Amino acid sequence: MDSEVFGLAQTLWDFLNLNGPLEPSDCIVGLGSYDLRVADRCAELYHGHFGPRIIFSGKLGNWTKALWDRSEAEIFAERAIEAGVPRSRIMLEVKSTNIGENILFTKELLSEAGSQPASVTFVTKPATERRVFATSLRLWPDMRIFITSPKIGLREQYEHGIRENLIHEMVGDVQRMTIYPRLGFQIPQEIPVAVLSAYERLIRLGYDQHLVVQ
C-alpha cells in the first residue's frame, strides 16, 4: 500500500472504528468474518465478565466462502472453546450472510430461546464498528447496544489477511452509509467532508469492488 492510499485508508478507518465505551451486557454477539481475532475478543470479554454467554452469528460471506467448509459461526465457536469458553455458554446462528441478517436472526434466535436481553455487546472487525452501530440502532432500536472489536490498527488488519480487499470493504461501507438510511437499513450518519473526499479518491484509484450497484 503506497503512502497516498494508506493515508486515505487511515481516514476511513478512523471514521469507521468507533472505539466506544464498554460495559457488561446480557449477551455477547460475535459477528462472523474472515478474522478469527473477533472470536478471540469474544472469549476475552466472556472471561472478563462482560457477558454470561456468546452468540456467534454468520453463515459464509464474500471473503470466507473460499476459506472454510463450515459456517463462520461454527469456526468462531471452535476458536472460543479453544480459548476456554464452555460450549454450554455458546449459541450459534448459522443463516446470516450480512450485518443486517446477523442482527435480525440473532434477535429471532434469542426470542425462540425465550430470552429477552436488555443489553447486547456486538463484537466485529474494527472497520465495521460504525456499520454495526448504524444497522443495530435501526433494526434493534429498543436494545442497549455496545460495540467493540480486536484492538488492532489499520496496518495490522491490512497485513493480517485480505489486504487490498480491506480497502474495497471500507469504501463499500462508506457508500452504504450514504444510501442505506433511505432504504431503511441503517440510521443516518453524518459523514465528515474529509471522509467523503478520501472515499471518492479511493474509488478513482480503483477501490470499487465492494460498492453496491445503484
Descriptive account of the structure:
This protein is of the alpha/beta class and 214 residues long. The protein has 2 domains: 3-14 and 154-204, no CATH class; 18-148, Rossmann fold, CATH 3.40.50. Helices cover 47% and strands 10% of the residues. It has 8 helices and 5 strands, in the order αβαβαβαβαβααα. The protein has a 5-stranded parallel β-sheet, with helices on both faces. Helix 5 links the parallel strand 4 and strand 5. Helix 1 crosses helix 7, helix 1 (3-16) packs across helix 8 (193-204) and helix 2 (37-47) packs across helix 3. The radius of gyration is 17 Å and the shape is globular. The protein starts with a helix and ends in a 10-residue tail after the last helix. The relative contact order is 0.18. The mean pLDDT is 94.
| CATH C-level label of the largest domain | Alpha Beta
Per CATH, what is the topology of the largest domain? Rossmann fold
Write out the CATH superfamily name of the largest domain: HUPs
- Provide the residue-averaged pLDDT: 94
Please tell me the CATH architecture of the largest domain by its name. 3-Layer(aba) Sandwich
Count of β-strands: 5
Largest sheet: 5 strands, parallel
Q: What is the tally of helical segments?
A: 8
Structural class based on helices, strands and sheet pairing: alpha/beta
Helical fraction equals: 40-55%
Distance between the termini: 28 Å
- Flag low-confidence runs: none
Q: Order of strands in the sheet with the most strands? A: 3-2-1-4-5
How many distinct folded domains? 2
Shape by Cα distribution: globular
Task: Please state roughly what percent of the residues sit in beta strands, choosing from under 5%, 5-15%, 15-25%, 25-35%, 35-45% or over 45%.
Answer: 5-15%
In angstroms, what is the radius of gyration?
17 Å
SSE sequence, one letter per element: HEHEHEHEHEHHH
